[in-house]
Amino acid sequence: MWSSLVPLILGCALEPIEMVITIMLLGTPSHLRAASAWVAGHVGTRLLQGLIFGTILHWGARSADPNHGRHWIVSTVLLVVALLFLVTAMRELFSGDDPNAPPPKWMTMLTSATPTKAFFIGTGVMTVSVKSWVFTLAAIGVIGNAGMERAANVVTYIVFVVLATGGNLLIVGLAAVFPQRSRSALDRVLRWLQGNDRPIMIVVGVGFGIWFGVKALHGFGTL
């Protein structure tokens, strides 16, 4: 289970555009409150998605048989994740457009976002992002296919959500504990992420795309 969850966690936690948004919100008048609200909206939406779709798809029974025939569902979702990573990498390579980036209007709002607006931006990004939905459904499928009790499924999913938000939580934590010293460091990180967004997305897309493709084909029994 964790061999499939860890790449999903890394793919979520190291999403450049989300870390850019977090750092930009730390530069608004609301500073830490706005960034924390954005992360809260992010986490809350993903938890709600897990509660609803996890119960519908996998977690409704007290226990599950790992040989109940759902392996192909998980493999299909992982194949979709692989294709999504590869398509994103190819689009970045040939066009430079990020299909998962928030709309420009939202990015403009970041410069003066209040905590309330930041919260709704967090929920909105998670709601409209195709990549976010695919990652969430993939995590739900991987956890449900492990054959654990319902409570263990829920706890594991919560751990996934927290770790998947690790990049943003680390940035907010550094800003809270070291408000002065972290500012210049985060500004440098922001400039680096903005300047290297394309190569990061290409490398991550190809690497994770191949990884999940192999996992999916192995699940289908073709490898």
Describe the structure.
This protein is 79% helix and 0% strand. The model is unreliable at 61-69 (pLDDT under 50). The two termini are 18 Å apart. It has 223 residues and is mostly helical. α3 (32-59) packs across α7 (130-144). The chain is built from 11 helices and no strands. It has one domain. It is globular, with a radius of gyration of 18 Å. It has helices spanning 2-13, 16-26, 32-59, 71-94, 104-109, 115-128, 130-144, 150-164, 166-177, 181-195, 197-220. This is Threonine/homoserine/homoserine lactone efflux protein. Keywords: Membrane, Transmembrane, Transmembrane helix.
Helix content: over 70%
List the uncertain runs. 61-69
Give helix and strand order, one letter per element, not per position: HHHHHHHHHHH
- Sheet with most strands: none
- Tell me the number of structural domains: 1
The share of residues in extended strands comes to under 5%
Compute the gyration radius: what is it?
18 Å
Number of strands: 0
What structural class results from the helix and strand content?
Answer: mainly alpha
The gross shape turns out to be globular
Mean pLDDT: 81
Q: Specify the number of helices.
A: 11
